[in-house]
Amino acid sequence: MAMSKKILEQEPGEIEMLLPWHAAGTLNARDVRRVDEALARDPELARQYAAIQEEYAETIHLNESLGAPSARAMQKLFAAIDGEPARNPSASLNLSARIWEFFAKLSPRTLAWSASLGAVALLLQAGVIGAILVKNQAASYQTASLSMNEPVTRNLGAGRPPRALVRFAPDARVADVTALLDSYQASIVDGAQGGLFQLQFGNKAMTKDEIAGLMSKLQSEKTVSLAVPAQ
Amino acid sequence: MQVLYGRHHVRVFRFGLRLVRDEQIAEDLISEVFLDVWRQAGKFEGRSAVSTWLLAITRFKALSALRRRKDVELDDEAANAIEDTSDDPEVAVQKKDTSEALRKCLTALSPEHREVVDLVYYHEKSVEEVAEIVGIPENTVKTRLFYARKKLAELLKAAGVERGWP
After folding, report:
1. Which CATH entry fits the domain spanning B73-161: 3.20.20.370, 2.60.120.260, 1.10.10.10, 1.10.3720.10?
2. Is the N or the C terminus of chain B less surrounded, counting Cβ atoms within 10 Å?
3. Mean pLDDT over residues A33-57, rounded?
4. How many other C-beta atoms are found inside a 10 Å radius of the C-beta of residue A161?
């Protein structure tokens, strides 16, 4: 107890208090430099940082072990939404908010390099989506309210181009990733959930064998540390 | 809404579950949070990340739910009492599993400490975002996390785990 009192009496230093955000990769560039410099010259701080990295890893482990909610939560939500009075579509999240949300959910460490890719990726996405919509006049897209008696359809026509969840190598540079996207005619369509980006390849469907070959080729790339087919 | 729900519901659920410690209530929270989002979407102006907005609503709903459950108190003792469904930290250490002891101790933190630890480490929120979600000044965010980590160190030390800090 005496020890805890002693601990609580200690005033933390400014850099010391920033260590958890450094470990999580959510500091701005200036603070990252300040913390890096302090870590390099202060072994005590470095020891504390090692402890923080353990805490960081175990907090993620703990949260990931909590699982996911059952379908009941979603059914309850959409039943409640169905029961809501009709509303103006413009009141829902607008396009700019969704685009903004896409980038907002990238973790800061991945945001750094993906920001420069963003403009290219969005242009590619716009092109691919536009081409798909023009080619598939019969395509349908249902959103907003959900009827519990009917399946949710999100059909942009048969033969969707293949997608993969890809984790880039930690030392991959923006130029490497851009070159990889170019060489595979790929675009980033979603990311980054746990550091994984969803990539779409070309604009044509592939056979299972072709997809397997593509994954194998991707996996052998220096820039890629993980590549698995996405649904 | 399906896109928004699909992208965020798991993290909203986990954040809520860590606060209320009851899966049923946490699932109910999700419905309430996203229904609020559906109703208030027009008010979202993009000043903060959607996930920050969602977590702030979740926190508010979770605290309201806890207040409704009069048998639950927001203090360390109650938090510790509710936990303890399996091995305690000492037993975990006997198993020479420091990681498990660390997770146990993370669970044993007070709700105030737990939420700031989760927001920073798991939800990858910046100082500014945590301040917005929790509704406290940025400096308080920093000191709260520091003392949460001190408390964690104390719990680990009591469980016989020495990590070289403090």
Report:
1. 1.10.10.10
2. C
3. 94
4. 17
